[in-house]
Design goal:
mainly beta, 8-stranded antiparallel barrel, globular
């Protein structure tokens, strides 16, 4: 993609945005790209802590949840993580922003990852009518912005290797 030029193809998730992210509450988010638009996402409350249990969800925990990088109706790109039944929600969504001076704008693929903020939001999707209380995604709260945490990534990957061996 060329800066300042519109893309007419499917959005590609920027490789520098993959890896470990951390919020102000210590929650960790790990983004791993599978294809240009498909990722798997893992969340945990902190190093050496188990992945959040997801009651009544087919994945059973927040490890390797499927995600898709896509555009909304305004053509703003975001990452939609299936935190419930695929196609029905709820979804844990991340919008990527970049700080310029005293304002935020939508992040572009060429922005330095260290300046990108991943802002989470919850989208209950079509299932909202059946279960408006949102208990199946209570693990996501409190919502706080995530920042890249490259210095902690090796320790986190070592931990992921330990639990996948179990």
């Amino acid at each position: 993609m060329i800066p300042g030029q519109a893309s007419h193809g499917s959005p590609t998730f920027p490789e520098p945005w993959c890896g470990l992210w951390k919020d102000s509450n210590g929650k960790l988010l790990y983004l791993q790209r599978i294809t240009e638009r498909q990722l798997v996402v893992s969340l945990t409350p902190g190093h050496e802590q188990p992945f959040f249990p997801l009651p009544e969800v087919m994945y059973g925990r927040t490890h390797r949840l499927p995600a898709l990088y896509q555009a909304d109706v305004r053509s703003h790109l975001f990452l939609r993580v299936d935190a419930g039944q695929p196609g029905w929600g709820p979804y844990f969504e991340l919008e990527f922003l970049f700080g310029e001076g005293d304002r935020l704008r939508l992040a572009e693929p060429w922005d330095l990852a260290s300046g990108v903020i991943a802002r989470p939001r919850i989208n209950f999707g079509p299932q909202a009518e059946g279960s408006p209380d949102g208990t199946s995604i209570s693990w996501a709260y409190p919502l706080a912005n995530f920042w890249k945490a490259e210095e902690e990534e090796k320790r986190f990957l070592d931990y992921l290797g330990e639990i996948s061996a179990d």
